[in-house]
């Protein structure tokens, strides 16, 4: 069995300027938990998941800091706070999507994809050819492969 046999070929594709509320509506209407963000040429730009949408309701974690000589010294990385604020305040897909994606080619093996999914704690891995999404491997797809053995 190949990953092209188990990948989801019918998935939601959205543009980067799609309003976040429209993404949530699509998830509910299509009973999906992810969407791939593509440009006008169908090149993969990112992914949005239900977790990203739920993240918008999260309480902001204010990093611990102390003051010294009228300066604030943070104990944590401020880029994490900036990223959280960006996601919480997102109104368009491009502001909420994850851009640094792990993808696989259609020639990847099921055990390679399963290893990536487990080690990276991913639930969706886009299958791309020439930077264009042709499918998505999901946890359910891997379970199907397991049952087909």
Question: What's the quick description here?
Answer:
Helix content is 38%, strand content 23%. It is an alpha+beta fold and 149 residues long.
Descriptive account of the structure:
The protein has seven helices and seven strands; from the N terminus they run H-E-H-E-E-H-E-E-H-H-H-E-E-H. With 149 residues, the chain is of the alpha+beta class. The strands form three sheets. The chain has a three-stranded mixed β-sheet. It has a two-stranded antiparallel ribbon with strand order 4-5. A two-stranded antiparallel sheet has the order 6-7. It has a single domain (3-148), classed as CBS-domain (Roll). It has helices at residues 3-6, 20-30, 50-55, 78-88, 93-96, 110-120, 139-148, and strands spanning 13-14, 34-38, 44-49, 65-68, 71-74, 124-129, 132-138. A hairpin with a 5-residue loop joins strand 2 and strand 3 (44-49). It is 38% helix and 23% strand.
């Amino acid at each position: 069995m190949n990953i092209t046999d188990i990948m989801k070929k019918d998935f939601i594709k959205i543009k980067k300027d799609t309003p976040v509320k429209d993404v949530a509506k699509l998830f509910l209407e299509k009973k999906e938990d992810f969407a791939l963000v593509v440009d006008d040429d169908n090149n993969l730009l990112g992914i949005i998941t239900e977790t990203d949408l739920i993240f918008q309701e999260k309480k902001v974690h204010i990093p611990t800091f102390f003051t010294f000589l009228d300066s604030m010294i943070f104990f944590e990385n401020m880029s994490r706070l900036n990223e959280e604020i960006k996601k919480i305040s997102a109104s368009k897909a491009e502001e909420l999507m994850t851009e640094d994606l792990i993808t696989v080619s259609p020639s990847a093996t099921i055990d390679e994809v399963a290893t990536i999914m487990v080690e990276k704690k991913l639930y969706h891995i886009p299958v791309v050819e020439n930077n264009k999404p042709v499918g998505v491997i999901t946890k359910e797809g891997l379970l199907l492969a397991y049952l087909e053995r």
